[in-house]
Every structure is written in C-alpha cells, then in structure tokens.
Specification:
- Keywords: Membrane, Transmembrane, Transmembrane helix.
- The protein is built from eight helices and no strands.
- It is mainly α.
- It folds into two domains: about 120 residues, no CATH class; about 70 residues.
- It is globular.
Length: about 200
C-alpha cells in the first residue's frame, strides 16, 4: 500500500500556527489568575460599559484594549475577564499565523520550521496566561509586515494605506509605535517611489 506524501491543503504551516496558538492559549488560561495589569484593563472595560469613552479614559489614559474587551463581552455575552482572554488569544493566534505567512512568502521551504518556532519560543508564549496590551500590538505589527511584503510584490496606494492603518491600529495598543508613522508615510510607501539608482519600485 502506498502512503500519500502530500498533506491535505488545509493542513499547512499557517493554519497549524493559528490552531496551535489557540490551543496553547486555552491551556494557559486553565487555572490561571488575572494579572495586575489585566485587572486595570477589566476595570476600565467596565467603566466604558458604564460611562462610555470619557469614563474609560478617566480610568486609564490609553483605554483602547479595554474598549475592545468591552465590545467583545457585549457581542459574545462573556464576562469581561473571559472576553479579554478570548481577544488576547485571537490576537496572539493571528500574530503567530502572520509570522509564518511572512516566512511562506520569503522562504516557503522554512515554513514548517517557522511554525514550530512561533509555537515553541518562550518569548512568544510565556505570557499567554496574562492580559496584556502587547498581543494586539504584535498582531497589527505583523499584519503591517505581511501587507508590506504584498505591497513590495505589487505596489499600490490602497496597499500603502492598509500598511499605515495597521501600524496606526497597533499604536492604539502601544502608543510607543507612533514614531513608526514616519517610516510608513505616503512618501516612503509610494507605489511610484524612485530609488537612488533611478529605478522605480
């Protein structure tokens, strides 16, 4: 009997990274207690539900993750804490999948190794049991990187704008990213930018 050597199309490195990350987040959530920063985000989410944006901003100066948690809670019916962990798990899974997707575009022969790396590297995984703003930041930064690789293959103004929107959304999670706009400005991402050698790229 011949054993098929090709994997089904749905079993690919990107999908595996996505599913594996969600599973790791579920395992990390079991038996965990909320961290101190997470308590602040949950309290701010409750303030948003009770009094809107002004109340949320009075509770925490950069309340965008908390607003996301409040909206997920309202849409799903989950408690604020579980909604926060769900949102973080989705952000982390998306970030892992996008990291692998970037490798697939550049070096497809390394795709499975990159999948193993993002699911095993402690720096990516040791904080899955905590509520952190960084997960959303990582997701949108990786989305910007993936969009930039697409833009490099086929430059366009919509692609350039999408990159800037992704970086801007990442900055809603971590305001330290605002300086990145200087490098993602329309002039730097123009589909008709000319290099110093006179070539358009």
């Amino acid at each position: 009997m011949m054993i098929p050597t090709r994997l089904p199309r749905w079993l690919n490195p990107v999908a595996t990274a996505l599913a594996g990350s969600l599973l790791l987040s579920l395992v990390a959530r079991l038996g965990s207690t909320i961290n101190r920063d997470g308590m602040l985000y949950i309290n701010t989410a409750q303030a948003f539900l009770d009094g809107g944006f002004a109340a949320a901003k009075a509770s925490f100066a950069w309340p965008f993750l908390s607003i996301g948690i409040a909206l997920v809670s309202k849409l799903t019916g989950l408690g604020l804490e579980n909604a926060g962990y769900l949102l973080n798990a989705l952000f982390m899974a998306g970030a892992c999948a996008l990291m692998v997707a970037c490798v697939v575009r550049r070096a497809p022969e390394l795709a499975w190794w990159s999948c193993l790396t993002v699911l095993a590297l402690p720096g990516f995984n040791e904080y899955r049991n905590e509520l952190l703003r960084e997960f959303g930041c990582w997701f949108f930064v990786m989305l910007a990187c993936w969009l930039a690789l697409r833009w490099e293959e086929k430059p366009s103004w919509p692609g350039a704008v999408a990159i800037q929107l992704s970086v801007g959304t990442a900055a809603l999670s971590a305001q330290r990213l605002w300086p990145c706009f200087r490098h993602c400005s329309p002039g730097n991402c123009s589909p008709h930018r000319v290099s110093s050698a006179g070539r358009t790229w």
